[in-house]
Amino acid sequence: MIRDEGTSFDLPLLAAVLSLLAVGLVAVFSASSVTGLLERGDAAYYFKRQLLWAVAGTAAMTVASQFDYHRLRLVTLPLLLVSVAGLVLVLVVGQEISGSRRWIDLGFLNFQPSELFKLANILFLSAYLAAAGEEVRTFTRGILPGLVVVGLGFLLILAEPDFGTAAAMAATSVLLFFAAGAHLGHLIGLGVAALPALVFLVVAEPYRVRRLLAFVDPWADPLDSGWNVIQSLLAIGSGGVFGVGLGQSRQKFAYLPEQHTDFIFAILAEEFGLLGSLVVVGLFFFVAWRGYRLALKAPDTYGALLATGLTTMICLQAFLNIGVVTGVLPVTGITLPFISAGGSSLVVTLTGVGILLNISRQIRP
User: Fold this and answer.
1) First-to-last C-alpha distance (Å) of the chain
2) Is 4 a member of any domain?
3) Which of 130, 168, 184, 222 lies at 20 to 30 Å from 340 by C-alpha?
């Protein structure tokens, strides 16, 4: 099931991704050193785990880059069923951390089913919408069948609860419908119909209301709901233009929560300053450019939709994370691709990059 396309893959895209991965390993080592020492007695504990995941993810990316993306249709349905089963299972036996059940403890690793579903959903929608052709402009035969899968995944991820991941997955799906040629009126109608439900979801949970209020004015509750944002902004401001230096962050000393996961960009900004932050942001913009460029040049509709969905999955999550860390968006608890510590996310994201690289191999000059 492996085919040699006979052309080279997108080296600039690969270079940008590997650069982000290298920055991530350095950032995880620095940001997690205090937590690792206090909790595990090993300052390099989280770094070593992340390094193993990076090796596994790079291997997955290599295999995916050599695997003809057209044949992904054969594994799409089984992968989708497994991911949905995982989303159901995590609600029953998942580890509860900070009030959420997002991980299944497999003994040797913690598996996050929502990450697998994000990839499976893109594979499914890309195959379905490509096959639908002109019927995608109809609602019942075009949008509705795909919407059922997206809605099921959204509700299951929301039940964990993980509103940020659910919203990012849904937004990526809407963009895929749009890219496939869905009727704009249908998409706008769905957005208008979903708006009251989204408002209800926010106000129905007190912690979401507190996060929204903290976004408006974090200083109104600086010791509770506003703490994360305030400490994140202090870290970013302390970095100045050139940063305080690698390993010299002060906010990682129990001031900034989730410093090696959700808020790792703040530690990166503190240690590498504005210039280092701009380099990371620039790399994500470069990944977006190369990914959407592949979508425009893909040899068929299926490849174009795959490239669109995978690129959006990566770059939208990066935008959301950096937006939260800089106080531009409310706190959502979403990680920074390639940078934040986390095995499931890293392996799935690198697998997605591998699919992008395979698409690039099949583009003829």
Assistant:
1) 24
2) no
3) 222
